[in-house]
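User: Quick sanity check before I run a bigger batch. Here is a single chain. Can you write out its predicted 3D structure?
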Amino acid sequence: MNVIKTELLDVYILEPKKFGDHRGWFMESWSQKKMEDAGLFYNFVQDNQSFSAKKGTLRGLHFQKGDAAQAKLVRCVKGAVVDFAVDMRKGSPTYKKWIGVELTPENNRQLLIPRGFLHGFVTLTDDVEFLYKADNYYSPENDRGIRWNDPDIAVDWNIADPITSEKDNTAPLLKDSDIDFVYQPG
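Assistant: Done. Predicted structure follows.
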């Protein structure tokens, strides 16, 4: 597995190796041992999957608050997305900075997003299936979001009129949120 540092502190692109022949292909999409060999220690406890029917669907920017915060390992298994992570850890050298990474079944890329980040994606095709692992269980009472078009974060989704949910459209702006992540160097 190829582990690539991004310009965001503690966010990595993972590229599993794919082996193919005339029958098809095989890929080890997750190995805790290989992650630990790379110095990345996560204990994922829940897998989630979403389906987006239309190109231009935007989901985000989401997080879980407090002790319910989640690290995520995300990938696209059908279609294509640009996946976004935004550092919300006060005191981090990359605080309020964001990246977007294209994820497709063809490029096999996965994005590893630690706790303390906002997460979202926009679909580049119809019929997108998106999978992610989380290192903490979903907690409805700690489920939060920041408005996807918040000018204080200014994510460039590269789309004029996305398909969004009511929940994402009415999420608070960062300045009005109860987000309280703090960077812990180490």
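The CA atoms of residues 86 and 98 lie 4 Å apart.

User: Great, the batch can go ahead then.
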